[in-house]
Structure formats: structure tokens, C-alpha cells
From TrEMBL:
Binding site for NADP(+): 180-182, 250
Gene: folD
Name of protein: Bifunctional protein FolD
Function: Catalyzes the oxidation of 5,10-methylenetetrahydrofolate to 5,10-methenyltetrahydrofolate and then the hydrolysis of 5,10-methenyltetrahydrofolate to 10-formyltetrahydrofolate.
Annotated Pfam families: THF_DHG_CYH, THF_DHG_CYH_C
Family of the protein in this entry: Belongs to the tetrahydrofolate dehydrogenase/cyclohydrolase family.
Origin species: Haloquadratum walsbyi J07HQW1
UniProt EC number: 1.5.1.5, 3.5.4.9
GO molecular function: methenyltetrahydrofolate cyclohydrolase activity; methylenetetrahydrofolate dehydrogenase (NADP+) activity
Location of the Tetrahydrofolate dehydrogenase/cyclohydrolase NAD(P)-binding domain: 154-300
């Protein structure tokens, strides 16, 4: 099986069985379905609204926030854009979160990370009303997820579950290796995969930078989910034939002509071995964005007691 990167996307250039899991397409379908969910809520007199709070000068964070606003607009979710001077005292951010918590027109709150050093990230996450915590990072929501009663699943692992379902990947009984133990990707991903639920019932090995002989783990896996933030660290030699490979990594690397985005997986050699694989870009990234919209619609239903079907 061979893939070629042409005009911004990978194309299969030989006839083989390998499935390219297209996150752009699945995310577009979820957004399209969410428009109906939003319309149903809006018809009851409530318009879903997401508040974003940005407290840093990082251009990448500004871009992420503006992309989130564009995504919301596309499906009919209103947004409130709050920026706080990074030099301001932490209390200003806490007061803002308190106001958003009690504002009935705001259904979801997202505080863009990173925060300045003088602001305790954990304190901010604890401060957000767990019913408006569309990132799913509040300890109450983390606990619910671990206990198997998720309220909001964090967007990236939730998006990966949706991708696995859309691509018809069987997780029940599968040996899954998750590489990375961050609170936003690796840990919730492992927790979701072990649950007695759709896209769950897997046997999970959670690997990290202190894991001995990572290749021996990945070679045993039916599903490899790479979320380490190390460019192209997983190559075909580390995989067995027939593996499903989900590449979460987004790494900017220098090239002779400038720079490009690559994943944590060396695509060409991994695709030679894989049964199914996500590209970077166009795999997990669009799903993360779509699931923020999904969580915001769910948050509107939860905070207003409006019942709505979600895709
Ligand atoms: N596609 C998306 O929508 C999306 C969303 C979020 C993140 N990302 C990307 O996903 C990647 C991971 O993000 P993150 O926020 O989870 O990163 P993170 O907080 O830096 O965590 C990285 C994890 O990978 C582990 N790790 C690092 N090097 C390793 C190695 N050589 N072998 C095995 N494990 C290793 C670390 O282990 P230790 O715990 O031992 O340090 C850590 O647990 C990044 O490239 C990020 O940009 C993409």
C-alpha cells in the first residue's frame, strides 16, 4: 500500500486494503448533524453560547480561539470572546470565570491554555462550573469519566472514539497501546477505551517517556494511539501488520523550504503495515474541534434542561 501527499492531502496511489481514516470528513458530518441539534434548541428560545477566555499573548493560542469561534458560527453557536491582560492578577481571571458561571446566557466556558506562570491552572479548572466545563477538565468531570459516567469527554479522546466508530474499528477485546499520559489526551483516552461502552472494552497499555522497550508494546498492539508530541517517533518497524494507527501528534518541524506539520507517526512506513491510519493533518485535529461544538451543545442541554439528540 502506498500513500502520496498531494495538494494538502494524502491519496492512495496503489490498490491495497489500508484504510485512510479521514477526520476532516467525519468531523464535517458531525458538524452538519450538530446544526440540526442547535436548531432544535434555538427553536425553544435558547441559543447555545460558548465563552472563551484568553489570557496569553501567544499567536498560536489566538489562532486556536479564533478557529473555535469560526467553528461555532458555522453550526449556529454564539460566542463571547473575553481576553485578559496576561499581566493582570489571577483574581481577574477568577472573577471572570465566576461571572460566566452565573450568567444564564453562557452554556459552555473554555479557558485557553497556557496561562501565565502566576496563575494556577488547576485552580482555574476547579473554578469553572462543572456543568459548563466543555473541555471536561474539571476534577468532577474527570472523576465521572473514570467512574464510567462521563458528563463531558475531553474533546481529543472523544473525537478519536468517534473516528474509531466511523471507521468501523472493533475495540472490544482489542489490545490498545496509548502513548502519552497527559490529562488532556493520554489518560482520558485510556480511560475511555477500557469502559464498558461503544468504542471501549479494549485492554489498554498506557505508555510514557519512562516505558521500557516501547517497540515491544506497540508491536503487540491491535490499536496504537500516539500522543507523545515527538515527531515521527513511531515507524513501521514498531508495528505489526494489521494495526490500526491513530496519530494525535501535531509537531511543526523545519524543512529545507520552511516548516511543515508532522504527526508522532512516520506516515509512509506505518501505512505500509497498518490496516487503517489517520493522516496529519486531517485526522484527529478536525475531530477535536468538532467535539468542542458537540460538548457545547450538550452543555446547553444540561444547563437549560432542554432535551436534544446528539450525533
Ligand atoms: N490532534 C489534536 O487535536 C491534538 C490535541 C491535543 C494534543 N495534540 C498533540 O498531541 C501531542 C501530545 O499532546 P499532549 O498535550 O498530550 O502532550 P504532553 O502533555 O506533552 O504529554 C506527552 C506525553 O508523551 C509522553 N512521551 C514523551 N516522549 C515520549 C517518548 N519518547 N516515548 C514515550 N512517551 C513519551 C510523555 O511522557 P511523560 O509523562 O513521562 O513525560 C507525556 O506523557 C502533541 O503533539 C500535541 O500537539 C493534538
Amino acid at each position: 500500500m502506498r500513500f502520496k501527499y498531494v495538494a494538502g492531502k494524502y491519496s492512495c496511489v496503489t490498490q491495497t486494503q489500508t484504510q485512510l481514516i479521514d477526520g476532516t470528513e467525519v468531523a464535517a458530518s458531525i458538524r452538519s448533524d450538530l446544526i440540526s441539534s442547535v436548531n432544535r434548541i434555538t427553536n425553544t428560545g435558547t441559543t447555545p453560547q460558548l465563552a472563551t477566555v484568553l489570557m496569553n499573548d501567544d499567536p498560536a493560542s489566538q489562532t486556536y480561539v479564533s478557529m473555535k469561534h469560526d467553528d461555532c458560527e458555522e453550526v449556529g453557536i454564539e460566542t463571547r470572546d473575553i481576553t485578559i491582560d496576561p499581566e493582570a492578577p489571577a483574581a481577574e481571571l477568577f472573577d471572570t470565570v465566576d461571572e460566566l458561571n452565573t450568567d444564564p446566557s453562557i452554556h459552555g466556558i473554555l479557558v485557553q491554555m497556557p496561562l501565565p506562570d502566576h496563575v494556577d491552572e488547576r485552580e482555574v479548572l476547579r473554578r469553572i462550573d462543572p456543568k459548563k466545563d466543555v473541555d471536561g477538565f474539571h476534577p468532577e468531570n474527570v472523576g465521572r469519566l473514570v467512574a464510567g459516567q462521563p458528563r463531558y469527554k475531553p474533546c481529543t479522546p472523544h473525537g478519536i472514539q468517534k473516528l474509531l466508530i466511523a471507521a468501523d474499528i472493533e475495540t472490544e477485546g482489542a489490545d490498545a497501546v496509548v502513548i502519552g499520559r497527559s490529562n488532556i489526551v493520554g489518560k482520558p483516552m485510556a480511560n475511555l477505551l477500557i469502559q464498558k461502552a461503544d468504542a471501549g472494552n479494549a485492554t489498554v497499555t498506557l505508555c510514557h517517556s519512562r516505558t521500557n522497550d516501547l517497540a515491544s508494546k506497540t508491536r503487540e498492539a491491535d490499536i496504537v494511539i500516539a500522543a507523545a508530541g515527538v515527531p515521527e517517533m513511531i515507524d513501521g518497524d514498531m508495528l505489526s501488520a494489521g494495526t490500526v494507527v491513530i496519530d494525535v501528534g501535531i509537531n511543526r518541524v523545519e524543512t529545507e523550504t520552511g516548516s511543515e506539520l508532522v504527526g508522532d507517526v512516520e506516515f509512509e512506513s506505518a501505512a505500509e503495515k497498518a490496516d487503517a491510519i489517520t493522516p496529519v493533518p486531517g485526522g484527529v485535529g478536525p475531530m477535536t474541534r468538532a467535539m468542542l461544538l458537540w460538548n457545547t451543545v450538550k452543555a446547553t442541554a444540561i444547563t437549560t434542561d432542554v432535551s436534544v439528540e446528539l450525533p
